[in-house]
Design a protein that fits this description.
Rossmann fold, 12 helices, binds phenylalanine, 437 residues, alpha/beta, 5-stranded parallel beta sheet, 15 strands, 2 domains
């Protein structure tokens, strides 16, 4: 009896392994097929605490793929997006990427937004040698997972330094408080990089307070901050909590401006924070008010497609990531994952909606940031801050570069013409511009 069931098991196992081989068209590498639709996996949060992030990602990719397909596809083949909702949970992110890789056998993966989720899923893509491009995860560690992991946005060592410089140089702040999300790699990294640069500029952090994404009451932390009386309050979190924090800070009579980064960006931010956000400042990836024709064309097409919703930074970065992937497939002349990876690594001076995108040796993009002031439910453009230079001695950016990478082409908007090194973030040029660019 025992023997019969064992051999039955063997037969089943054998049969299913044949079935697997068939399904892969006889190729072992993902994406080796030469005809039929090109499957691209996309993952993000559609139903959790950061559902705006997944929604915008899906919108941006869908729009890019439609444009590409209407224009004839990639070497005659159409792009298909397979989207998976990870509910904004790191474990779920790893699970859905495993499915996309093993079951759907996608050629490449786009996602996530929150760095913690990208960090959870990237090892799966790396292991399977399926290229993954995160449009918007900014924590330096994400692309350090391996040579199949890319991003098309700047990193937090730059972004954190941008806000520290803005605080010290533009707002003349001498002291700052930090209110950060303890479970978020993004928040922890931003705190570290802000503090490093703010200290370097002679500023002092007077208190650090923590919260988690499930908190709804921040008054304890805000009361402690009020007692420390800082010039500015750095809140490197996501829109869901930041909106509420702004309201409660106002209720407690706190006057110091709140400062933050890209994580604030979502259409829902103003629903949650309303006028309490007036006078706050944040860094972000691009401005919908940028008068350049390519930005204006993108904004108009997106609004038309999505019922008047303006494309936030995530939507724009997702669109750029999709376009960069398509461009790499075209240049590779193949959808073989390794060839696509190699072509991605060669990306130089790609004209994206969010700026000129060159992939450096750490597989990151080096790009300027914009700073907004929040006023009456609007993001009012203040400054563009570009990474500059070659000054590798200006202390730090420890996590940015595993391999002491050399200078890639400088982003188009960086007027200095200096090659941006991986430690570029420590040295920024401020082009003050109080009107719309
Ligand atoms: N940069 C954030 C992170 O790494 C994600 C994010 C990007 C959020 C852009 C909003 C806008 O976690």
């Amino acid at each position: 009896m025992k023997r019969t069931s064992l051999s039955l098991l063997l037969v089943v196992a054998l049969l299913s392994s044949f079935a697997c081989e068939r399904r892969g068209d006889g190729t072992s590498t993902a994406g080796g097929e030469t005809s039929g639709p090109i499957k691209v996996g996309v993952y993000g949060d559609l139903s959790g605490q950061t559902s705006s992030f997944g929604q915008s990602t899906r919108n941006g990719v869908a729009m890019a793929f439609d444009e590409i397909n209407k224009a004839g596809g990639i070497n005659g083949r159409q792009l298909t997006m397979l989207f998976e909702d990870d509910q904004g949970q790191p474990a779920q992110a790893a699970t859905v990427v495993t499915k996309l890789v093993n079951q759907d056998r996608v050629v490449a993966i786009l996602g996530e937004v929150a760095s913690t989720n990208s960090l959870a899923a990237a090892p799966v893509a790396q292991q399977a040698k399926v290229p993954m491009i995160t449009p918007s995860s900014t924590n330096p560690k994400v692309t350090q997972v391996g040579d199949y992991i890319f991003r098309v946005c700047f990193t937090d060592d730059f972004q954190g330094a941008v806000m520290a410089k803005f605080a010290a140089n533009t707002l003349k702040a001498k002291t700052a408080a930090v209110l950060g999300d303890v479970n978020s790699d993004y928040s922890k990294g931003m705190t570290q990089f802000f503090e490093q640069e703010f200290n370097r500029l002679g500023g002092r952090i007077v208190t650090k307070q923590a919260y988690t994404q499930t908190d709804a009451d921040f008054k304890g932390q805000l009361t402690a901050i009020r007692s420390a009386n800082p010039d500015v309050i750095f809140v490197p979190g996501y829109y869901g909590q930041v909106g509420v924090i702004a309201k409660q800070a106002k209720e407690l009579g706190i006057k110091a401006p709140l400062l933050g980064g890209d994580g604030w960006d979502a259409p829902q931010l103003f629903d949650l924070g309303g006028e309490a956000l007036n006078g706050a400042y944040m860094a972000n990836h691009y401005s919908i008010d940028d008068p350049s024709p390519s930005v204006q064309k993108f904004v108009a097409a997106y609004k038309q497609r999505y019922n008047g919703t303006a494309p936030d930074a995530i939507a724009a970065l997702a669109y750029d990531a999709a376009m960069i992937l398509a461009d790499a497939m075209r240049r590779a002349g193949s959808t073989d994952s390794t060839k696509v990876r190699d072509a991605l690594a060669q990306t130089k001076g790609f004209a994206g909606v969010t700026g000129s995108i060159s992939i450096n040796e750490s597989r990151d993009a080096v790009k300027p940031a914009v700073v907004f002031e929040l006023q009456n439910r609007k993001f009012v453009y203040k400054e563009t801050i570009s990474p500059s230079g070659s000054d590798a001695t200006a202390g730090a950016a420890p996590a940015a570069s595993p391999a002491g990478a050399t200078a890639p082409a400088s982003p188009a908007a960086a007027s200095t013409g200096a090659g941006a090194t991986t430690s570029a973030n420590t040295n920024v040029n401020t082009n003050t511009n109080t009107t719309t660019p």
